[in-house]
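Blinded run. Sample ID left blank on purpose so nobody reads anything into the name before looking at the predicted structure. Input follows.
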Amino acid sequence: MRREKNKCQSGFSVIELMVVCLVILIVAGYAVPNVLNFIHMAKLRGSASDYASLLQVGRIRSVQDDTFYKTYVIAGPPQQAYVDLTNNGGTGVAPGDPSIQVSSEVIPIAKGGAPDTANLSGQFLPAGSGVIPQDATATPVIFSPRGLPCTTQLAGAVCTSAGGPTAYWAFFENNINKVFEAVTVSPAGRVQKWQHGTGGWSKL
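Blinded prediction complete.
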């Protein structure tokens, strides 16, 4: 009579499974915060990029239509920015107005709440120009038919060139990770994006 030997079945022990789960938890503990920070940065960067692109649209349309157009930031909700092609005075987006929607976790910040503004102005304004940038979150960005930023001079008038060189800046903060980005318009009409870091502002 032949004896049949029991075959050993291979598998994982409980201890091995616990070690694997522990390793997964440790890796996830490092990866999840990085993924979340990436998502928050993407929302901030996307909002700033959309706004910069909208300003370019306003500038191009001003030249094409040979007129002055304003670009407004509306606090919301929903938070929006738009080029006022219909001349409604900033009361809201009308059909036909180019517009963007700003992420709900990205907040437009007034100049007084933004960091290192002297550092930023020193980088995008001509040296010794004396130009004081206007806050685009509080006043609309106006482009002339020549594609240059300009300033409202008289009540009821859109803008004239009598005010001299004009510049704008707008600051955005992600209210979760507290990172700042900015969009500037130089007196020559150049639109530029910036990110704030430990060393001040740097171009994007």
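Unblinding after everyone has recorded impressions. The chain has a mean pLDDT of 87.
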